[in-house]
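Researcher: Please translate sequence to structure tokens.
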Amino acid sequence: MLVSDHIHLTVQSGSGGNGCESYNHRTDRKAVPNGGDGGRGGSIVFRADEHAPGISSFKFRQHIVAETGVHGGPNKCRGRNGKDTLVLVPVGTRLFDREKNLLIRHLVQAGDEVVVVPGGRGGVGNQGGKKVSTGEPGQLLDLELRYRLRADAFFVGLPNSGKSTLMNALTHTHLKTEAYPFTTQSPEVGVCKLSDYEQVTLCEFPSLYAGSLEGRGVGMDFLIHLEDARFVFYVIDPLSPFSESPAKSFQMLRKIVSEFNPQFLEIPSAVLFTKMDLKEAVAVMKKKKFKLPFPALSVSSEDKKSLEKLKLYFREVLLNDAHA
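Model: Translation complete:
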């Protein structure tokens, strides 16, 4: 899943139509003003939609213009209003005024909408002796759209920690799993069914390691999606060749997350020790005991019993109002 987290675009509302200067010349030679008003220009409206394409689609549509209002006509004919332009964006999109760096609206739920730039008012016609005026010009605004992935929980881990295999086992997706590191190149989302009427959305991040702080591997920019996270699982392989011990793995992951944004350390979390069907992994955990600030669960993608136990934990912490 290729995810763009922000994009810039320019929007412009439609100008109002001009008022008409027109006269009805009666038989008594008296000219009666009868010019109609101009129509209102179209507005730019953003609406959150569950089926909207990702914001990356705006790379090919970076200037959005609404329709101009029609000019007024003789015989008190009012110009037609310009059509509003409706822009559909994914649920969770934030709209920012780039110049002021000001949040305009966070579209949290499907159906949420906001008029970003209203159309210009139509000009006044000379009917009734009014002074003729031109329509208001449309407004131009530079926008930044920011999108954060929506998931109930995020998996963060070192290379080859078993995140993708675990995601496949829990969500029945078919993520690529290989022995070499950095198989996952971008965030991947899947749905884990807990019962006939309960499910949670999980997101696997690409792997992190010490070099991520210098931008190596696939970097760590994807961590921006933790901004709206409700829960984080630190996925740790006790036999990881990328760390001296499970404790060091945990400390490394926490350090990387902290370097990106210290506030992310406050997100409710738990630790998942993977590959616990292996005797060597069990032996390491027995030998190298250490204290954690969070709950820890042992899991194996090959062990249905441990997966069911993990699903029960999902229900406890992800479907609980305390973390909503």
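Researcher: Any highlights?
Model: The chain is about 15% helix and 25% strand.
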